[in-house]
Amino acid sequence: MRLIVSAGGTGGGIYPALAVAARIRKQYPTFVLHFVGSAAGLENDLIEAEGCQFATYHTVQAGPLHGVSLPRVLLSLMLLVIGTLQAVALFLRFRPNGVFLTGGWVGLPVALAGTVFRVPIVIFVPDIEPGLTLKVLGRFARVITATTEATQAFFPGKKVIATGYPLRESVLEATREAGQQHFHLETAIPTLLVFGGSRGARSINRALMANIGNLLQDLQVIHVTGSLDWPEMQGLYQKLSPELRQHYQLFEYLHEMGLAMAAADLVVSRAGASTLGEFPYFGLPSVLVPYPHAWRYQKVNADWLVERGAAVRLDDEKLNDELVPVVRGLITNPVKLQAMREAVHRLGTAQGAENIAQLIAKGKT
User: Fold this and answer.
1) Distance, CA of 247 to CA of 155 (rounded, Å)
2) What range defines the domain where residue 219 resides?
3) What is the tens place of the pLDDT at every residue in 129-173?
4) Helices assigned H by DSSP within 183-333
5) For the chain, how many structural domains are there in total?
6) Dihedral pair phi/psi, residue 121, rounded to 5°
7) Same structural domain, 51 and 180
8) Is the dihedral of CA 239, 243, 248, 249 positive or negative?
9) What is the largest CA-CA distance in the chain?
10) Which of 16, 112, 278, 309 is deepest in the core (most CB within 10 A)?
11) How far is CA 5 from each of CA 62, 197, 259, 261, rounded to the nearest angstrom?
């Protein structure tokens, strides 16, 4: 079978695509996989970082169609036409039997080309509520898969298969003991993991730095800043005393996120799609701070976990004042923390990538 895999945008859409591709290569080694990404995205860097192997890697033109100015929309429409022609050329060259998409604007030209050639399309919806791209892609898809059954409400008239979130091998193989050893953590001190995505979250970074001395009194912290605030955070880190730095590890980007999550007792993060899959797999309680300057996807994700006793939600504008009392209130309450750990673990599955791979391989497209 010849399969085109396409994903773009942020890691929340790219990582699931790579996880499914890795599972397909492992279970179905005769499959030939081609990756199609966007010209200006993170895809190539993440593929290299994850050690993923595709027969070929290609980019096509695409651009945002909402949340931008009219001139930008017109430019994106032109790019969509160009990208679709580029995708058609790839389909003529590789003659794929199937297409797997996980979102990002790059999926539109690929889906249009797949429709022209009547190639069956499977999409995966990482967030509970699909973004505009995935809503559009759902019209072209023969099969819609999703992290949870809650996504069904957003695709009336279509069947959504809840497969679970596809996890990378590096996440599936991570253990608490290996994580503690990798980060040289003290087993008697609770570990707080803080991150905000590949580019970072400025409000989370600054709230943590404003309160780091207080938190490090009884915690050890792994902090992944992202690229946006790395110079500023690095400068603030250097001003801390050696005693504080002893229990505070700062990273711009961390490829060993599986080990960090496995070692952590609590996490503070945004509420992107991976929170629905990775935190449940590790039974990791979370303090979620949805990104406020976008559509409501992260708020829907966060509320879904909060309603199930698996997380606490903080609003971005209150983060600086509420971060310490909320974190300390959880860390110092083992009964509450254990209840959250059990609640989030019940939501997890290790079979997300395998479930989707089987759907594709069995021709359920």
Assistant:
1) 47
2) 171-345
3) 998 889 999 999 999 999 999 999 999 989 999 999 999 999 999
4) 202-215, 230-239, 242-245, 257-263, 278-282, 297-307, 319-331
5) 2
6) -120, 130
7) no
8) positive
9) 63
10) 16
11) 16, 23, 27, 27
Report residue 267 as tokens: 């996490």
Percent helix, strand, coil in the chain, to 5, is 50, 15, 35
Q: Which CATH number does the domain housing residue 292 bear?
A: 3.40.50.2000
- Average model confidence (pLDDT) across the chain: 93
Q: Please compute the mean of the pLDDT values over residues 273-297 and round it to a whole number.
A: 93
Say how many residues make up the chain.
Answer: 365
Average pLDDT over residues 2-21: 89
User: In this structure, are 195 and 311 located in the same domain?
Assistant: yes
Residue 365 has pLDDT above 70, yes or no: no
Closest by CA position to 64, among listed 127, 10, 144 = 10
Residues 341, 354, single domain; the answer is no
Instruction: Tell me how far CA of residue 112 lies from CA of 81, 233, 332, in angstroms.
Output: 10, 43, 53
The pTM of this model reads 0.92
Same-domain check for residues 337 and 355: no
Q: Which residues contact 196 (CB under 8 A, 6 or more apart)?
A: 202, 204, 205, 224, 225, 226, 269, 270
Taking CA atoms, 77 is separated from 111, 134, 139, 210, in Å, by: 15, 17, 19, 44
Residues 334 and 354 in one domain: no
Give the span between the Cα atoms of 95 and 76, in whole angstroms: 27
Q: Are residues 330 and 201 in the same domain?
A: yes
Q: Do residues 262 and 215 both lie within one domain? A: yes
pLDDT digits (tens, 9 = 90+) for 180-202: 999 999 999 999 999 987 666 88
Q: Which residue has the higher pLDDT, 110 or 65?
A: 110
- Mean pLDDT, residues 39-60: 78
Same domain, 225 and 150: no
Could you write out the DSSP letters of every residue in 298-338? HHHHHHHHHHTTSEEE--GGGHHHHHHHHHHHHHT-HHHHH
Calculate mean pLDDT across residues 208-212: 93
pLDDT at 198: 65
- What is the 8-class DSSP label of residue 5? E
